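#struct-pred
JK: can someone run the complex with adenosine-5'-diphosphate? inputs below
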Amino acid sequence: MRLLLLAPPGAGKGTQGERLAAWSGARHIAAGDLLRAQAQAGGGLGHEIAAYQERGDLVPDQIVLDVLTPAVVDAAAAGGYILDGFPRTLPQATAAAELAARLGVTLDAAIYLHATDEVLTRRLLDRASQSGRSDDKADVIRHRLRVYAETTGQLVPYYTERGILVSVDADQPPDSVTADIQSRLSALPFLAS
Ligand code: ADP
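RT: done, structure tokens with the ligand placed:
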């Protein structure tokens, strides 16, 4: 199975990504986690990534592609992937589509988890004290939601036009979101086996 989770900050794509990976056997690739690991490793590149993440700005496309491409190639060879937080811009989506086509492993579905900004903000503020993330602060959260609306939101029409968008209401308990995703995926003719 090859999926993409498209969602604003706080919609639960990390949680759902892990569950879908366990359910399907595909590998969970969390862009934010891979970039945070690279930031923690330090060095010039690490410091650059950390600065973007702390501000809630997107890391430049070329850096993201350099970090993410090997993980996608490995996962594709191992039988599938659940992309969480990548692609997040139109140039990333185009590059990812070209890579997938070259490897013969194109996306089965793009799962769009949606919720209102009010719900997302409340969740992010609630988890801020435990997350230990430098970007879980009220002003940075506001900025991340704006960046999502202005940039990543463009991927909703992009995947709709390609006929693979699956919209799921993320304003439900995690188990209900998982159940909705699974039932929607099971209904897709090309995934039924
Ligand atoms: P959230 O979705 O809650 O913002 P993530 O862990 O997915 O959490 O992302 C955290 C940060 O990592 C983003 O604000 C951004 O700085 C960086 N990031 C993650 N994925 C990408 C991406 N595909 N392109 C650019 N930057 C990214």
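RT: quick notes.
DSSP finds nine helices and five strands in the chain.
The CA atoms of residues 117 and 145 lie 7 Å apart.
JK: thanks, will look after standup
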